[in-house]
Each structure stands twice: as C-alpha cells, then as structure tokens.
C-alpha cells in the first residue's frame, strides 16, 4: 500500500498542496523559534538575554506548535474528504481498512519528511529574523549571534513528522471505518458531522479558555502586567475550541441563512444548495478565519489595554514590559501570517476541487456569472460566521483582562483596530474565493464535468 501511496501522491499532487504547505510552514515556524534555544546554549547567553530567548522559544514556539498541529489535522482531513469517492472505490474492489490506513499515513509521512527538509533553510532565515528583532529592541545584546543546531532540526523534523502521522491516523480511522455504501453517500454529500472525539476536544479547549478567564478576574486581579500570563492565551484556546466545532457551527449557519440567501435569486439558490451539501469543506475553510480574528483581535486589544493602564498609572515601560509587548506582536505576526496563508491555501484547494461541480452546474443551465455570484454569497456567509466566532473567542481575553487591569470590561483602543482585522479577513476570503472560482470556470463546462 506504500507503493499505492506514492502513485496517489503523483496522480493527485494538487489535492496534497494544502497539506504540504501546512507542514512546510509549520516546520519553518517550529525551527525558527526552536533555534532560539540553540542560540541561548551556543552563545553562552545569561540573565535577561537568556530568559528572553528561552521565553520566545517556549511561548511563541509552543503556541505555534499548537496551531500547526491543528492546521495539519484540518488540511489532511480536507484532503481525505476530497478523495472520498476514490477511497470508496478502493473499498469496493477489496481494499481493507488497514491497507487504506497505511496508504493515508504513508502519504502524510512522505509529505511531512519532504516539507521538513525543505523548511530547514527558511527556518534558519526566519530564526535570524526573530533574533534580529530582539537585537533591535535591545532585549538581546548585538554580540549574541544566531545559532541553528540540533534542537531546531530535531524539533522541526521530529514534531512535523509525528504530528502529520498522528493526524493521518486520526483521519484514516474515520475515513476507513465506514462501509462502502456509507462511503459512497459521504462522497456525494459532505455533511462534515464532527466525531465524538472532536467534540470532546472542542469542549476541553473552551473549558480551558473559561478557566483562564476566571483565574484572570479572580486570582490575578490587581497584579499588574502579570495578568497577561493567564489572559493572553485564553483567546487562542477559545478560537481552537470554536474551530473544532466549525462543522456544527456551519451547519447551523446554513440552516439559519438558507431562506435569506434565496432572496438573491438563482445565485442565492445555488449558494444555499451548495452549503447544505458541502458543510465539511466550508468548516475547513472557516477554521482559519476563526483563529485569525480571535487571536488578532484579542491580542491587539490586550496590548492596547495594557498600554492604557501603564499610561494612566504614570509609569514608564520596564524592560520586561517591552519584552512582553514584543512577544505579543511576534505572536500576532506569526498567527496572522500563518492563518492568512492557510486560509488562502485551504480556499484555493477547496475551490479547485469543485471544478467538476461548476461544470455540471453550468451544463444544468447556470451562467458563469451566477456561479461566481453563488460562490461570493458562500464566501460572505463563511466570513461572517468566522468573524462572529473569532470575536466571541477574543472576548475570553479582552473582558477578563480589562476587568483585572482597569476595572472595565470595555477594552482600550479604537474601533478601527477591530474593523481593520475584519476587513483583512473579508478581503482574504473574498479575493481568494473569487480568483480561484474564476480560474475554475475558465475550463469549458463539458470538459470540467467529465474530469
């Protein structure tokens, strides 16, 4: 079955692009921040400089790792879901669940090793960039040079391979468990119903976020900048929890918005019908939006509130506060870049997979303009849902931190910060979907329908 995995990789290279890019970006991030540990050890850094390097590696790298594992699992699930008909066909000709599982895991392991090896040079360059940022802010002396060694390599390659393999095992178990008839039905209608395990993990993450919020307004109240230690991670935990519930959320959103969408005529009918049939794929696309909005909004307003509290107290920022501020903006930059690329990547992969569907829709009488309009409405629903869930996730950080730091649930900062994040999310989602759909419908309808 490993030979079958290799042939599958060659035959369906486009379907694996999203997974490969997630693994590549994840390995790059892990190596970049893990190299701070190599730098701290090889340069003999001491005191605040060493603490800064270790914190940067552990905190930012740790959250990066969590996001990477989530993204890898999400994209591998999307890749396998897009191949549901192929997997069902293999079952019908006698392939056993164990053989299919080995094929899926073999594909994932091959992608992971290739992505990790290709990420070594970008990871090294990114690590230099992170250290340069710390040099520029005076948190690490300029004489401390960058070192890229065994910690970065072992963590980058090892974690990427292990996470991909585990994610593939989880995905393969669900894909191979169903019978042939059920697999055929799943291939035709992608309802994307979440497994019990997914729901359990979602609830766990949300409870952890709630726990951090409660600790912030009780035990950490009045403890100054130290409040960031608990409140700063609540939005990420909540965003991951809501992203895990994305299939259920998108199914509810589809049910709620189907009637209003029909007011847009043929395009609305197309959008409503497609959303009911492709809930799973839409859930994969909305997850990066939730992570992007939740983390960006939460962290930006947390830092604005901290700056306002320090200014109101008439104090100058300490070296530690400057370090935390830099850390926050590095986290924002990493999450924004990673989730933005994953959002674009997922949407391109999901839309390109619909080329046959677009061809069949046009043969049934829909014009290219109606297809584009229908996809635009789907994109609007996806954006609104993602922004709404991301906003809810950010509240787990913003409100508790404001109460503990300023006795106010209203965060410092203006509305333009929030609007800028929402506008960027909408622009990325809308522009990517429109461009990918335009490219897909350039293929003649008959040719596309037969692919």
Automatic annotation (TrEMBL):
<feature type="domain" description="ABC3 transporter permease C-terminal">
    <location>
        <begin position="330"/>
        <end position="443"/>
    </location>
</feature>
<dbReference type="Pfam" id="PF02687">
    <property type="entry name" value="FtsX"/>
</dbReference>
<feature type="transmembrane region" description="Helical">
    <location>
        <begin position="281"/>
        <end position="302"/>
    </location>
</feature>
<keyword id="KW-1133">Transmembrane helix</keyword>
<feature type="transmembrane region" description="Helical">
    <location>
        <begin position="100"/>
        <end position="127"/>
    </location>
</feature>
<feature type="domain" description="ABC3 transporter permease C-terminal">
    <location>
        <begin position="62"/>
        <end position="177"/>
    </location>
</feature>
<feature type="transmembrane region" description="Helical">
    <location>
        <begin position="232"/>
        <end position="250"/>
    </location>
</feature>
<feature type="transmembrane region" description="Helical">
    <location>
        <begin position="329"/>
        <end position="350"/>
    </location>
</feature>
<feature type="transmembrane region" description="Helical">
    <location>
        <begin position="60"/>
        <end position="80"/>
    </location>
</feature>
<dbReference type="InterPro" id="IPR050250">
    <property type="entry name" value="Macrolide_Exporter_MacB"/>
</dbReference>
<feature type="transmembrane region" description="Helical">
    <location>
        <begin position="199"/>
        <end position="220"/>
    </location>
</feature>
<feature type="transmembrane region" description="Helical">
    <location>
        <begin position="147"/>
        <end position="170"/>
    </location>
</feature>
<feature type="transmembrane region" description="Helical">
    <location>
        <begin position="371"/>
        <end position="403"/>
    </location>
</feature>
<feature type="transmembrane region" description="Helical">
    <location>
        <begin position="415"/>
        <end position="436"/>
    </location>
</feature>
<keyword id="KW-0812">Transmembrane</keyword>
<dbReference type="GO" id="GO:0005886">
    <property type="term" value="C:plasma membrane"/>
</dbReference>
<keyword id="KW-1003">Cell membrane</keyword>
<protein>
    <submittedName>
        <fullName>Putative ABC transport system permease protein</fullName>
    </submittedName>
</protein>
<comment type="similarity">
    <text>Belongs to the ABC-4 integral membrane protein family.</text>
</comment>
<dbReference type="GO" id="GO:0022857">
    <property type="term" value="F:transmembrane transporter activity"/>
</dbReference>
<keyword id="KW-0472">Membrane</keyword>
<dbReference type="InterPro" id="IPR003838">
    <property type="entry name" value="ABC3_permease_C"/>
</dbReference>
